[in-house]
Task: inverse folding
């Protein structure tokens, strides 16, 4: 049974940091591209960052470049999203995604709220 379990969300002040984790099970983690998406209230779910299985190549949406870092630990079947210099517009539910060809799995999401 495939599972993606996110953790690490919460309430943080503007300029603060959070690290999200996504623990995977039920599939060959190391061979999947792993991504973080987010969905703000009233908006569609949008891609934030991806780390590929080959060479751990990473890509980011422009709005988080230089602030967020995606990484993976294939020994722990876990992907991370380090978020620094957080802004109120980063407030959203953050979702972990695993993808390999037509196979596409989602976690349940974790809430990140950036507010003073």
Result:
């Amino acid at each position: 049974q495939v599972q993606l379990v996110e953790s690490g969300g919460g309430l943080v002040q503007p300029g603060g940091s959070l690290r999200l984790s996504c623990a995977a099970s039920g599939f060959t983690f190391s061979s999947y591209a792993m991504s973080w998406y987010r969905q703000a209230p009233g908006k569609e779910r949008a891609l934030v960052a991806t780390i590929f299985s080959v060479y751990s190549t990473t890509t980011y949406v422009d709005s988080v470049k230089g602030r967020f870092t995606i990484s993976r630990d294939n020994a722990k079947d876990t992907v991370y999203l380090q978020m620094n210099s957080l802004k109120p517009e980063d407030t959203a539910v953050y979702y972990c995604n695993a993808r390999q060809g037509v196979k596409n799995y989602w976690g349940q999401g974790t809430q990140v709220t950036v507010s003073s």
Notes: The first strand starts at residue 3 and ends at 7. Residues 32 and 100 are 5 Å apart (CA to CA). The chain has a mean pLDDT of 97. The chain is about 0% helix and 55% strand.
